[in-house]
Amino acid sequence: MINSSDIRKENKKTIYKTMLDGRHYTKQQISTLTGLSIATCNTLLNDMKSKKELDVDEEKELRGVGRGSTLFAINSEHEYYILINIHVSKGKRIADFYLVNAIGTIVEKRQNTYDSFDLDEIILVVNIMNVKYGNVKQIVISVPGVIDEDEVKFCDIEELEGVKIASHFTGATVCMISVINDMHGIVYGYQAERKDEKSVVTLAGFTSHLLPGTVTMHKGQVISGSNGIAGLVGFMPFDVDVVEIPGMMAEGKCFDIIAKTIGSIIAFLNPNEIVLTGDLINRNIVADLITYCKRSVPEKYMPEFIIVSGFDEYLFRGMFQIAVDNKIL
């Protein structure tokens, strides 16, 4: 049962998310944008002000007539988040570190390359950033693998297989820790950027010599499955052992896997859009893919195919949104 405390928290989160663009708003404007009463907005804004979460300014009176209105904006420096994307690119192990403020502006970015991932080295960078800026409240970590009760499974990075990343970090920092599957973060960011919770959209990455990754968001909800493995292409019955699939992900060899993957997604999930990226994706292969799928899927039910240069922007946005969602107000 939802109680008054829960409603208050949800209302405060609604106000906070509305103000994430960094602009100044009057309480009347916030009331209009959120649908909350002016009295409710006034109470919650004053509470957030008392906790230093908001900056307050005074709007100049119009033509010298009447009193000015109080303007509220998120205090961008009231807390920071560290977003870490752990991934493989062209055979190299890479960690991208983003220290962002409360409205998602990147304050510092670092990229480190490793021969093998050592979480203690990752934590060292986190501690350096925390000492430099202070007030880091959350760390969100993205990995190319399934997160099964804190344990990494079926990961592109061998040394992270079976590692409990969140537990490792918990012993080294007091920040809130979130570890997510990279594709889940990507589709979450894609949806947040589009501000569309009514569509069904699939994002799929096909990169040379890596297991393909797909994820579908169904009307605002990420389809992760009961164990978080939904979209993991390695579990599809391709009549080959899963360890052979990365070797098949190469130009001239990959079409069968890509086509069967996309065809299955259309049949079972019926997305409005399929967004594709990866060095194996180009206009010619997408044209062949559409022809292949039309052999079994009526044209009326074919999705729109979109090619993008990469998913990094969506992943960053998704990790930031997860930090916002986890924020305690």
How much β-strand is present in the residues?
15-25%
**Low-confidence segments, ≥5 residues, pLDDT <50?**
none
Q: Sheet bearing the most strands, described?
A: 5 strands, mixed
**Which structural class is indicated by helix and strand composition?**
alpha/beta
Give the radius of gyration.
22 Å
Number of strands: 14
Termini, distance in Å?
20 Å
- Helix share bin: 25-40%
SSE sequence, one letter per element:
HHHEEEEEHEEEHEHEEEHHEHEH
Strand order within the widest beta sheet: 5-4-3-6-9
State mean pLDDT (0 to 100 scale): 91
Q: Please report the number of helical segments.
A: 10
CA-based shape: globular
Can you offer a commentary on this structure?
- With 329 residues, the chain is of the alpha/beta class.
- The chain is built from 10 helices and 14 strands.
- The protein has helices at residues 4-18, 27-34, 38-50, 119-133, 165-170, 182-194, 245-248, 255-269, 283-294, 312-326; strands at 54-58, 70-74, 80-89, 92-101, 106-114, 136-143, 146-148, 151-153, 176-181, 200-205, 213-218, 221-222, 273-277, 304-307.
- Strands 5-4-3-6-9 form a 5-stranded mixed beta sheet, sandwiched between helices. A 5-stranded mixed beta sheet has the order 12-11-10-13-14, with helices on both faces. Strands 1-2 form a two-stranded antiparallel ribbon.
- The longest helix has 15 residues, at 4-18.
- The radius of gyration is 22 Å and the shape is globular.
- The two termini are 20 Å apart.
- The model has no long low-confidence stretch (mean pLDDT 91).
